Amino acid sequence: MIKGYTLPRTPKGKASLVPHPPWHYVGDVVAIEYTADRALIEAYLPEPLTLESTKCCIYFVDWQYASEDGKEYLDPVESQYKETIILMSASYKGESMAYCPYIWVSQDKAFLRGLIQGWPKQMGETHISKAFALESKAAPTGHFGATLTVNGKRYIESQILLDEENAEMPSPTFAGSALLRYFPNLVGDKHDEPLVNELVQLKSRDVKVSTVSKGDAQLNFVVSSEHELSDFAPVKVLGGYRFQVALTVDDLKVLEKL
Amino acid sequence: MIKGYTLPRTPKGKASLVPHPPWHYVGDVVAIEYTADRALIEAYLPEPLTLESTKCCIYFVDWQYASEDGKEYLDPVESQYKETIILMSASYKGESMAYCPYIWVSQDKAFLRGLIQGWPKQMGETHISKAFALESKAAPTGHFGATLTVNGKRYIESQILLDEENAEMPSPTFAGSALLRYFPNLVGDKHDEPLVNELVQLKSRDVKVSTVSKGDAQLNFVVSSEHELSDFAPVKVLGGYRFQVALTVDDLKVLEKL
Amino acid sequence: MIKGYTLPRTPKGKASLVPHPPWHYVGDVVAIEYTADRALIEAYLPEPLTLESTKCCIYFVDWQYASEDGKEYLDPVESQYKETIILMSASYKGESMAYCPYIWVSQDKAFLRGLIQGWPKQMGETHISKAFALESKAAPTGHFGATLTVNGKRYIESQILLDEENAEMPSPTFAGSALLRYFPNLVGDKHDEPLVNELVQLKSRDVKVSTVSKGDAQLNFVVSSEHELSDFAPVKVLGGYRFQVALTVDDLKVLEKL
Amino acid sequence: MIKGYTLPRTPKGKASLVPHPPWHYVGDVVAIEYTADRALIEAYLPEPLTLESTKCCIYFVDWQYASEDGKEYLDPVESQYKETIILMSASYKGESMAYCPYIWVSQDKAFLRGLIQGWPKQMGETHISKAFALESKAAPTGHFGATLTVNGKRYIESQILLDEENAEMPSPTFAGSALLRYFPNLVGDKHDEPLVNELVQLKSRDVKVSTVSKGDAQLNFVVSSEHELSDFAPVKVLGGYRFQVALTVDDLKVLEKL
C-alpha cells in the first residue's frame, strides 16, 4: 500500500515531492503593469475566456513556503525559491479574471505544485534587488531591478523607481487566476488526447497584502522575435510596484472541461 | 486556439516545455546491481505488482536528448542532463518487470517528460566520472565514481572498478519498466482522488546498447534512516557496470487503472 | 596599455572582475556564538597571533554589493551573494582581534575581492531563512535556519530561536579581523616560497549595524572527522543572533610580513 | 604552524582549496579559429608582447582534473569543470606565443589554480555537445555546439561541422601561453601598485593530444558593444576543431616583472 499526495508514492508517504495541501506561501514582490499587443496575445486564451484588455502584469517574487506541519523554512533550501509570472486580462462569462500564459520557477517542489494548480511552469532563474533598513550605497532607495534567465539566456530585464506609498495593487492580480490544468497522454495514438484538460480557477485563502509602493518602471524582453514569449513584449509600460503577499492554497475550482 | 504537447500551450505551440514525441535519447551509464531488504522495499510496489526478488539496480546516466526535428544538442544546455534511477525487481501477472521507486534528474524538460511517462521524478544533481582515450592521472582506467546530491545534501556515493569486457547487461533494466502515471487533484474534497492513477509500462523503441564492462562496486546511501530513501540502502553489492545506451520514446502501455 | 584593478586587465579597464575600491556592502546576518576545542583550533593561528579564548562565531550573511558608481543591485545577479564565515578569538600584541580560518561564498566577484583582503575564500552555497512582515505559516516568528553546502555536500546546519531585542553584538566580530594575504608561487623550485604572505587587518569604514536580536541556537557540523573543518565543531553553543550590517571597504592594514 | 599550498592554510594543510602541484588535466575540446579586429585587440597585450597576427582561437573544454595522489575523479563534483578560453596571437622577443585576454571557468578550485598561473579567470557556464559511439538522433555526427553563459547572460554561441580527420591542431594553442600573473593591493594609497605584476609563460609537461578533427564553424558573440568582450568578436571564422588533450602543470616561467 503506497501513499503520498504526489509521486514518488511510498509506504509511509513521507517522500512525496509535494505533501498534502494546505500549502502556505509568503513573498516579496516586484511587479510591472504594462500593455501588450492585442493581435499577438489574444490567441493565448483557451475558450471560453475572452480578452478583457491588453493590460498585463509581470510579477517577480521571492517566495518562502511551508506545508501545514513542515516548518520547511528552517531548512531554507527546501523552502525558498523565486518566480517570474506573466498575467493577462481575461474575462470568463463576464467576470474579470487573470490568465497566465508563462511562468518560471527555480525549484522542483514549486514546479510540481504549480502543475497541479494549472500553472504552465518552466524552470528559470529570477533575481530581485533587496531592500535594507540601513543606509548604504549597496541598498537601493526605491530603485529596484528584477531579471529572468532561462537555460542560460537572459529573457527579461526590468527596473522600478518607487515614489508613491499606499498605492493600489497592480492588476491583473494572481489571486483568482484562470489556469489550464493539463496532463498529456503518451499512449501512441493519443498524443492529442490529453488525460486532463480543464480550465480551472485558483482558490487561495487567507490572502494578506502589505502596503503597496508604486512608481515608474522599465521592462525589456530580451528574447528574439522567433521566441513566442516575444508576443508579450511591452507596448507601453504603465507602472512599477513593490509589496509583500501571503496566501494559503488547498483548493481549486474547475470552470470547464475542455 | 492554443497548441502544444504540454504547458505552456500557445498560439504556435512552439513554446511548450516538451515538444510532441518522439523523444530521442543517448547516454553514458554507470550502474550498480545490489540487493536491498525485502521487508523495507516490498511495500513500494503498487498492486498488482509483486516483488520478484530483492535485486535492485541503480543507474547514473549522463544523457543527451533531441526531439524529432530539434537537434537540441547544438545548444547543449537545452539537451544535456544527468539522472540517477533506482529500479527494483517486480513481477506483473508472471512477467518480470522493473519498477522505479525513486529517480532524480537535473533539467525541467526531462522532469516533465518523466512525469508524462510515470517516472517519479525529483530534481537532483548527478555526477559521473568521465573516461578519456588519452593516458593521464586525471583519466580513470576502469575506476569510476558516481554521486547524487539533492537540495544540497549528498544522498548517494558509489564507485565501480571494471575488469571484464563484453559482460551481460545489469538487471533489472529500465527498458520496459512499470511506472505509476499519476496526477493529483487539488479540488478541496478530492485530495485523495487523483485525476490520473494508472500502472503503465514503458515502450521504448530503437534501443541500442554498446558493449558492457563489468567489475566490483561500492555503494553507500548517505541519507539518515529517517529518510524513506534509506529503505533502498544496499544489503549486498553485486557488481558495477558501464555502457552506452540509445533509445526513442513515443508510446506507453497502460497496464491497469488503479 | 592595459588597465583595471584586477584581471582581466583590458584597454578600457571596464572588464576587470572586480572594480577599483571602494566596495559597498549591506547584508542580513544570522550568527551563532560558540566555543570550540582549544587543542584543535589553536594551531590555526599564524604567528604572532595567539589564541585569546575558545570562543568562535559563525556568520551566515545574505549580501548585496555595489561599487562606487555601479548600482550593481539593479542587475541583482551581479550584486547578490551569500556567505558563511567562521571567526575565532585571537590576540595580536595584546589586542583582541578575530581571525578567519574558513569562509565560503557563492559568487566569483566576492571570491576575488575576498582573496585580495586575505579571506581564505572557497565557493559554497549558504541558505538563510527570511523574515516577513506579514503573518504566515511560511514566515518564521523568531525561528530561523541557516545551512552551508560545499560541492554538493551539506557541511553545516544551524537554527536560532530569538527571544531578546536590543542585544549586544556577538563576538568575535568580522570588522577588524586579522587575515592572511597569500599568493602562492608556481615556479618549479619555489612552491613553498609564496609571492605574498602577510598578516593583515581589515579596515572597514562607515560600518552601520541595526538593532540586534538574540536567543538560543543549535549548530551542527555535518562533516566527518577526516575533514579538517571538523576542528571547528562546537563544544558548547552560546547563543544565536540576527541583525543587519552595512560597511565599506577600500583599505587594508599590513600587520606583519610572514 | 599552518600549512597548505593555498588558503585556507591549516594545521594539517589538507583543507587548502588547491593542493601542491603537480596538477593533472584531461579534457574534451571544441575549438574555433578566427580573426578579430586588429584595432580592437592590439591594445590588450601587456608590453613587451606585440601582436603577431589577428588570428585568435576560442577553446571550449570539458575538463577532468586530479592532483598527484588525489584520484579526485572518483568524486567527480570535485574534479570536473568546463571552461571557455580566448587566445590571441602574440610575439615575445620574436617568439610566437599565445596570450589570453579572457577565460571563464565553472569551479572555484580551477579558478584559483588559474589565478596562480596568471589566467584572468572569471566564473561562467560552458556547455559543449557530446559525441557517442551509438547511432541516435540525439548523437551528433560531426555537428557540435558550444556556448558560454556568464551571470545568467548568454555571451558566446558557436557550432562546428567536422569533415576532416587527422588535421593539424588549431593555433594559437594554449600550451606555452603568455599570461599576466597579478595580485592587486588593497592598502589605501597603493590601489595602483599591485603586489604581483609579471608577464609569465605556462610550462605544461606531458602534453598529449589525440587525433584532431576539423571542419567549418560558426561563432557569434552575443554581448553588446558596450561590453569590452565584444572587442574579440570574429571578423572571419577560419575553422572548427575537436580533439582531446592531457597535460600536467607544476611549473611557470617568469618572462618579465612589469
TrEMBL record, chains A, B, C, D:
Checking SUPFAM superfamilies in the record gives: Acetoacetate decarboxylase-like (SSF160104)
Protein name as annotated: Acetoacetate decarboxylase family protein
Taxonomy, superkingdom: Bacteria
One protein family per Pfam:
ADC
Q: Which organism is it from?
A: Fusibacter ferrireducens
Identify the taxonomic lineage of the organism of origin: Bacteria, Bacillati, Bacillota, Clostridia, Eubacteriales
What InterPro entries does the database record attribute to this sequence?
Answer: Acetoacetate_decarboxylase, ADC_dom_sf
